[in-house]
Design goal:
Blueprint lengths: L10 E2 L9 H5 L5 E3 L5 E3 L10 H5 L5 E2 L2 H10 L1
Length: 77
């Protein structure tokens, strides 16, 4: 079951991202775009349908959809 729109969360860890663009390619609603430096950015979060494809398909495990995971990672890094 998808989360309510106001609870949808995504975060890209740039330290782990290798700028492959897979997240952009798999997003069905084009939430993610590539910036000048080649890194993905969450440009249209209002369009996110919480499908999780970007998280699942990221070969670097650089995309998180849970705020608690982000907090845990911040403690480690």
């Amino acid at each position: 079951m998808a989360r309510p729109k106001d609870k949808i969360f995504l975060w890209i860890n740039r330290r782990w991202c290798k700028r492959c663009g897979i997240c952009v390619a798999v997003c069905p609603t084009k939430v993610i775009e590539i910036e000048k430096s080649g890194y993905p950015v969450l440009a249209h979060m209002d369009k996110c349908i919480d499908c999780g494809m970007c998280v699942i398909m990221c070969p670097d495990f650089a995309i998180f959809d849970d705020q608690e995971d982000k907090k845990l990672l911040a403690k480690i890094l």
